[in-house]
């Protein structure tokens, strides 16, 4: 991977479209040109204490939950279950069986979490895959679709997933409850996992151009 202190306009135009380069801390770059060429810029240097603090996970006390029309029944059961655990639930809909587009609901939940209005979010559609993809487009969100408790625990403990996606076609309420419980109660204890989250954050902040 090429490493730069400064990426000038001329250098940016010579980089391979879609490539990834490394920029030293405090380095300058030709952001518009890099964005146009879809060059990803990764910030160099060790992860700082500030970054570790930023990505350390807090306990989940408030959960934003949303679904599309296919997940309405499952959402009702999950809302009841999470509230039964003593957590606060922000039910963002939907509340009827009228057809809706899952990206809209996933975005609502993801933005709620990204703004700090909830500690974590949960989205439900037919497969869970689409909602996870949509939620991940919101800066600060790490969403994953999981279908068993072990994957749910790993998602939170190792990857810091802050939006869980469930597929109503794959799990019913009985199967979903232990998945949700495993995710809600998992903690990220090891600093190496937090450091990896910080690296993901650097990629995200870089967008397509650093």
Explain what you see.
This protein has 210 residues and is α/β, with parallel strands linked by helices. The chain has two domains: 3-54 and 191-206, no CATH class; 59-185, Sugar-phosphate isomerase, RpiB/LacA/LacB (Ribose 5-phosphate Isomerase B, Chain: A). Helices cover 43% and strands 20% of the residues. It is built from nine helices and eight strands. The strands form two sheets. It has a five-stranded parallel beta sheet with strand order 5-4-6-8-7, with helices on both faces. It has a three-stranded parallel beta sheet with strand order 1-2-3. Helix 5 crosses helix 6 (129-135). It is elongated and about 55 Å long. The mean pLDDT is 88.
In the CATH hierarchy, the architecture of the largest domain is 3-Layer(aba) Sandwich
What's the alpha carbon Rg, rounded to whole Å? 19 Å
Q: Alpha-carbon distance between the termini? A: 15 Å
Poorly predicted ranges: none
In helices, the fraction of residues equals: 40-55%
Q: Element order, helices and strands? A: EHEHEHEHEHEHEHEHH
CATH superfamily grouping of the largest domain: Sugar-phosphate isomerase, RpiB/LacA/LacB
Cross-sheet strand order for the largest sheet = 5-4-6-8-7
């Amino acid at each position: 991977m090429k490493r730069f202190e400064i990426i000038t306009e001329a250098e940016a135009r010579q980089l391979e479209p879609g490539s990834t380069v490394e920029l030293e801390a405090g380095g300058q770059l030709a952001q518009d040109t890099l964005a146009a060429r879809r060059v990803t810029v990764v910030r160099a240097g060790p992860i700082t204490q500030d970054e570790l603090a930023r990505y350390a996970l807090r306990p989940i006390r408030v959960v934003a939950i949303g679904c599309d029309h296919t997940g309405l029944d499952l959402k009702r059961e999950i809302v009841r279950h999470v509230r039964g655990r003593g957590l606060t639930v922000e039910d963002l809909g939907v509340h009827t069986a009228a057809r809706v587009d899952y990206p809209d609901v996933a975005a609502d939940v993801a933005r709620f979490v990204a703004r700090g209005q909830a500690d974590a979010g949960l989205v439900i559609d037919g497969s869970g895959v689409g909602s996870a993809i949509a939620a991940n487009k919101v800066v600060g969100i790490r969403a994953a679709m999981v279908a068993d408790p072990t994957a749910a625990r790993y998602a939170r403990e190792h990857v810091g997933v802050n939006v869980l996606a469930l597929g109503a076609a794959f799990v019913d309420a009985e199967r979903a409850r232990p998945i949700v419980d495993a995710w809600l109660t998992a903690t990220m204890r090891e600093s190496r996992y937090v450091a990896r989250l910080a690296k993901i954050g650097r990629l995200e902040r870089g967008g397509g151009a650093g």
